[in-house]
Every structure is written in structure tokens, then in C-alpha cells.
Prior knowledge:
This protein is an alpha/beta fold. It has a domain of 198 residues: Dihydrodipicolinate Reductase, domain 2 (2-Layer Sandwich), CATH 3.30.360.10. The chain has 11 helices and 15 strands. It has a 9-stranded mixed beta sheet, with helices on one face. The protein has a 6-stranded parallel beta sheet with strand order 3-2-1-4-5-6, with helices on both faces. The longest helix has 19 residues. It is globular and about 55 Å long. The chain binds nicotinamide-adenine-dinucleotide. Nicotinamide-adenine-dinucleotide binds next to loops.
Amino acid sequence: MLNNHTRREFVSATAAASAAALLPNWKAWSAPQAKKIRLAVLGGGFGATFHFHEHPNCVVTAATDLYEGRRQRLRDYYKLDAVYNSFDEMLKARNTFDAVAVFSGAQDHAKHVLQCFHHGLHVLSAVPACMTLEEAQQLKEAKEKTGLRYMMAESSYYRTGCIYARDLYKKGGFGEIHYSELEYYHDFPATRFQNNPRSLWYNPDGSESWRKGLPPMLYPTHSLGFLVGVTKERIVKLNCLGWGPDHPNYRYQENRYQNPFANQFALMETNQGHMTRCNVFWEVAADGEQARWFGEKGTLYMALPRIHSDIWHERFGQPKPIEFPKYWMSEALPPSMRHESGHGGSAIFISAEFINALVEDREPEIDIYESLAMTVPGIVAHQSSLKGGETMKVPSFDRKQA
Length: 402
Ligand SMILES: NC(=O)c1ccc[n+]([C@@H]2O[C@H](COP(=O)([O-])OP(=O)(O)OC[C@H]3O[C@@H](n4cnc5c(N)ncnc54)[C@H](O)[C@@H]3O)[C@@H](O)[C@H]2O)c1
């Protein structure tokens, strides 16, 4: 019988061993190569929470933000002096970096990524990849023309439950996944956020931020990452409904998007004929990103914060709580990066994968095609909801088959 101490050591050793084995597509870390990626960071909000500088093959050489407080945050966090007042200004020092991590507001990602490609820079983009079908086409064309590397920093893809589901699916543990439920809930109560300069609806200078009135389905990747990031399926058809509370932001569409909806709910069909229910809600007593995958052999439920733990329900068996491996302990990560990190542990993997891909001269796991497959269905879903739930086809932005 194991005592508590020995059991803890045993569980942690098993978790570490299986974590190394389980990390899909990741090689064991070997001694750092001489190659150093010189990275610039655009955006000192979420952009000042990553771990690029802990990677032995990366040095953060430049950063930029429009606001002084955020420039200071970037200076302190990444420990650098070369901090610029705007992206355009930073681009004048183009020869001091090879790649850019773009963490501007959602509506600017496509524009900033295209600027990066134009200057011959590899790019890591915050989610979503873009907000229109035209931008999706431009991104795909620019990526294919330049051959530069592109990755989208989708956190759901590297949440522990998603890494586990991806691996289980690969190993046949689900059999066919015929239905999934994908959710991103983030309560932005209009009654508390309106005219509250400290809320996320306002920028540090008091102007309205891109989050005020943002159509939820234009921010679909935290939900869709759980499907595209597990089975690699593509959404081909959908319909979507929306709801908004009785508040001028929604009722009179007093927002830059003329958007009436705070919550959107879509039913989607995949290219393998499977069903998905995809929710993105801004007015809700619930939080977080979570999914449920229903397979022939069993169902995996990601934990609902403060409601239930992660659960595996073997078909014809009993539902049982399950403990996911501590993937961050994996020897696939450089030793300096083997620690817990933000957004469900995803920040460390996003940081490492982008740098690894550049060092190894390969496409990152969340390449342009996966990124657009997680983004574009939301653009179409929003259109469907504006038409009262009309069924719409989703165009493909995948690589042309030879
Ligand atoms: N879990 C996740 O994946 C997650 C979490 C939070 C944010 N995000 C994404 O990350 C991005 C950034 O989020 P945020 O909360 O920091 O947004 P934010 O609007 O608070 O910050 C964006 C920053 O970009 C800067 N910026 C914009 N244009 C610039 C330019 N031309 N030159 C220099 N700086 C410029 C702004 O000054 C601002 O500080 C958003 O797109 C958001 O969707 C993702």
C-alpha cells in the first residue's frame, strides 16, 4: 500500500512520464541550438503575459504599445529597452527582429499580420485570425505567397483537457466523435460595463475598446479550437441564433459593429457529417472555456468551474472523475519552461511551439489553415444569426489538394 507521500511522488512521476509521451507531435527537448529567434511584441495587455523570453532559443528584442503604461509593462516584463510608441515606429527597426507576436485588438489582427508578411516577418497572431471572409482570403494568399510562418495563439488548443482529448482521439480512445459541445462564456454585463472606464469596454485613454458590442461569433476560436484542435474536422454548414439583453448597446446597436447580440448559439455540421453545438456568450452566469466530446466508446466532460471535475464516461460503464497529466512537466519543453502558466496552462505551450517551429523551420501546429478553420465558421455564424438562423454554407480556406 502506498502512503500519501509515496502516492504523491508516484502520481507525479507517472504524470511526468505520460506527459512526455502524450504531447502530440512534440519531440523530446534536446540541448539548445545556436539559433536565436529575435522576437518583437505588439501589444502590452495580453501580449505581456507570455513566456517567449524563457525559451533558450528566443530573445525579445523590441516591443510596442500605444499607451505609456503598457509600454512600461512590456519593458518590465520582457526586460528590454527598445520599446516603441507604435507598430509603424517599431517597423523602422525591422532589422532588429525576425518575428512579431501580434497582440493588438481583435479587429486589427489581419491588418497587422499582413504588415508583418509585407516586411518579411514570421508572425504569431492573437485570436481571432480575422473578422471578415475577405481578410481570411488575404491572409491565406499572403501566407502562401511569402512562405513565412504563421501561428494563431489559440489557448483552448493547449488547455490540458484539449491536449488530452486530442491524444485520446488519435489513439482511437473515443472511436468516432459524433457530437461535441463547445463553449466560451465570459460575462461582460452591459449594465456594469457601460460608462465604466475601468471595464474592458474602454481603453486606457477612456475611448471605447474593440470589446464593446463585439459579436460573440466573431470571437469563436476558444470554442471551435476544441473541435478543430481535436479531430481536425472542418465546419461545412451551420445555423446560428443570437440574443441580446434590453440595453442600448444591443437593443439600439450602439456599438461599432451594429451588433444586436450578446450571446450566440450555433448548430454546426462537419465535413465528416458530425454535429457540433457551439456557444459564445457575453451575458451569462457562467465562465470559462470548456467542451464535451461524445464518442462511440465514451464521453469526455471537461470540468465546469466550481460545478464538476473532469469526467470520463466509458460507454456501458460508470462516469468517473479523471485527472489529466501535467503536460507542462513534459521533457518536450525546455527545462526553463516546465511550469504552470496562464489560461489553463496554455501560455507556455503557445510560447514554446511558436519558437520551436521557427527554430526547426517548420509550420507551427496551429498553422494558417487550422487558424482559419477555427475562425471562419464564426464569421458565417454571425451572418446566419442576423438572418434569423438561416442555414449557411461555410467556405473552405484550406490548402488546395494537389
Ligand atoms: N485566451 C486568449 O487567447 C486571449 C485572452 C485575452 C486576449 N486575447 C486576445 O489578445 C489580443 C489582445 O488582448 P488585450 O486584452 O490585451 O487587448 P487590448 O485592446 O487591451 O490591448 C491591445 C493593445 O494593442 C495596442 N496596439 C494596438 N494597435 C497598436 C499599434 N498600431 N501599435 C502599437 N500598439 C498597438 C494597444 O495600445 C493596446 O494596448 C486581443 O485580440 C484578444 O482577443 C486572447
